[in-house]
Amino acid sequence: MAEERARAKEENGAAPIRAGAGYDYLFEQFRVPRGCLGYVVADPAARLAAVVDPEIEMVEPMLDFLFERGLRLAYIIDTHTHADHVSGAKELKKKSVGKVVMHEKAPSQAVDIRVVDGDRLYLGELPIKFLYTPGHAKDLVCVVLPGRILTADALLIGSCGRTDLLNGNATQQYHTLHYVFRSLPDELLVYPGHDYRGRSCSTLGEEKKNNPKMNFGSEEEFVEYMDRVNPEKLEPVYQLAESLKANMQ
Q1: Who's near 205: CB < 8 A, 6+ residues apart?
Q2: Per-residue confidence at 23, pLDDT binned at 50, 70, 90?
Q3: Predicted confidence band at 93 (pLDDT cuts at 50, 70, 90)?
Q4: CATH of span 2-235
Q5: Which among 6, 44, 48, 205 is least buried, having the fewest CB atoms inside 10 angstroms?
Q6: Is 46 exposed, middle or buried (0-12, 13-18, 19+ CB in 10 A)?
Q7: 3-class state of residue 122 by DSSP
C-alpha cells in the first residue's frame, strides 16, 4: 500500500479530451439528471484509468466507456462520503480490479487505499495528486491533474458545498476556499462534483474573482452566513439517510 500511495461528453460518453502541461491524457465528464458529476481519467499509453465520484447510475456507462477504449480500471476515487447520492464505488469494485481510494478519515470499510494531503497515485506516467480540502465534509479531497482540478463539493461554480450536514465545518470551508484554492494557479480548469447553475467547468481565476463564497470580507462573516443564513435557503437533501448509510459502510 505504501508503494501505491507514493506512486466530455456530458450525459455519458463523448470523444475523449486531450490536455495538460506536458501530458496527453483522456478526460471524460459524466452526469446524471440531478446534476451529479463524475469523471474518468486515463493514460492511453499505459491503458490505465481512474474514475472519480461515480454516482451509482454512472457505473454501467463508465464501464462501457472503459471497455470500448480497452482501458483497465486501476483506481476508484470517492472524494468524500457523499450525503446526497449513493456512490457507485463499491459496485465498480465488484465489477473490476480497481481499488477504492478515499481520505484517511473516510468511515467506509470498502476503502483499499487511504490518502492524505499531498499524496500521489500514478496512471502510467500520469500523476494524480490529492489535496485535503475539508469543510463540506471532514474527509473531502480534491483531485489535481495536469491543467485541471476536480473540486467535488469543496468548490462549486459560483458557490461551494453546504457545511450544515454531518461533519461539515464552516471554518474549515473558509480556510479551504481562502487559503488552499487561492494559493493555486488561476489557469487551472475547475471541474466540480455538481452542476447547479448550468455550467460544468470554470477556471480558478474566474472563481477567485466572481465566486461570492470566495469573496467574503472576513472569516467571521463567512462562518455566520454558512451556519445561520445559508441553511435557510437550501432544500432538504435528496435521500440523505439512505445515502449516508450506504456510503459509510
Answers
A1: 186, 187
A2: low
A3: very high
A4: 3.60.15.10
A5: 6
A6: middle
A7: strand
Mean pLDDT of the chain: 87
User: Over 90: is that where the pLDDT of 197 sits?
Assistant: no
**Upper half-sphere CA count for residue 14 (Cβ side, 13 Å):** 12
Only one residue has cell 467547468, namely 201
Radius of gyration of the chain (CA): 17
Side chain identity, residue 214: M
List the one residue out of 19, 5, 1, 71 whose CA is nearest residue 40.
71
Q: What is the per-residue pLDDT for 245?
A: 54
Q: Determine the pLDDT at residue 84.
A: 75
Please tell me the total number of residues recorded for the chain in this structure.
249
Beta-carbon contacts of residue 128 (< 8 Å; ≥ 6 apart): 41, 50, 75, 77, 120, 121, 122, 143, 144, 145
